[in-house]
Specification:
Blueprint: H1 2-42, H2 44-49, E1 53-54, E2 59-60, H3 63-94, H4 97-112, H5 115-133, H6 141-165, H7 169-177, H8 182-193, H9 195-211, H10 214-219, H11 237-244, H12 251-282
Antiparallel strand pairs: 1-2
Length: 283
Amino acid sequence: MKKFKEKLSGRIFFILALSTISALVLITIFIFVEGMPLIAEVGLFNFIFGMVWSPSQGHFGIFPMIVGTVSVTFGAALIGIPVGICCSIFMAEFAPARMRSIFRPAIQLLAGIPSVVYGFWGLIYIVPIIRDRLGGPGLSVLAGSVILAIMILPTIISISEVSIMALPRHYKEGALALGMTHWQTIWRVQLPAAKSGIVAGVILGIGRAVGETMVVIMVLGNAVALPESILDPVRTLTTNIGIEMGYAAGKHQQALFATGIVLFILIMILNITAQIITRRKSK
């Protein structure tokens, strides 16, 4: 009877795990089935590098949105990565235990705030500050980068802190015994040793920034054009799908699914890269 229960529970867990993988496979198949006909008709090169997005006139170029996605994500990484790593160093090496017990829940709370709240806050505070102090419409690459940088901080901080604290104690003790200062030990010993985990956290954070929708809809301005500066409005791939899927039909709908294919492949590459880096660390 005991063996039967163990086998039954094992099969139940296997079915649950298989259902999760099956859902991913079905979603992938659905996206590719709906989007590939449009890519085959227009051509992969014309679809990715086309400069005009006008589905009603038969133009399906998503290059301005790819540039918008990359520019906003790069801006978020430029702001969020240094801040996140510095916060993780402070949490792991300098913060007292009582302060750490306050900061950790606060950082985790950032990850639980709905994205629409971030977008609303950015629309009310960040956008007017940019418009009044720097010029332009305010709805811009810079506004989206600032908000997304805040949103990716919990991922970068949590994973980086765990990676630093998981290092063997003799790394730090040996460096200090050789006469290094505390900061030299962190910079020359601990950070290089924890590099794999930190990079994995950064990649996962960037993956979240790439896939974010609601915030960028609210603060980017949604202009389908190549930005000339960080104060210009842009549209990202996720924004394009979120805005137009509600009324799209025919080839227009297929083009949005094709956009989803590009986004899906991009995020999968980021996640696979993070998994490879994490596995190298464990080895």
